[in-house]
Amino acid sequence: MALVYYSEKDVRYIQGIEKGKLEGIHLSLDIKFGSEGVSLMNTLNNIEKLGEMKKIIKDTESVVEFKNKVKMNG
After folding, report:
1. Backbone CA torsion sign across 55, 46, 43, 19
2. Is 0.90 topped by the overall pTM?
3. At residue 70, does pLDDT exceed 90?
4. Helix (H, G, I), strand (E, B) or coil at 5
5. Helix, strand, coil % (nearest 5) of the chain?
6. What would the pLDDT profile of 24-63 be if each residue is shown by its tens digit?
7. Going along the chain, which residue ranges are E strands?
8. Cβ(13)–Cβ(7) under 8 Å?
9. Which of 6, 13, 58, 73 is spaced 20 to 30 A from 51 at the CA atom?
């Protein structure tokens, strides 16, 4: 009998995906907003919908605008 393993349900796999998303968001904030943007990372760790951050970062022009959109979506 073949053993089937669903990695998508593995806690370590899910944690790795989330860690990768956070690292990508960190890099995006650093590139777009510099150190001021990176300082926002602590507030983002509690947001469940990390996938939406990509669009928010892309659509915002300033740190203030980014903070406002995160508050609306968080």
Report:
1. negative
2. no
3. no
4. coil
5. 75, 0, 25
6. 889 999 999 998 888 888 776 556 677 778 888 889 999 8
7. none
8. yes
9. 6
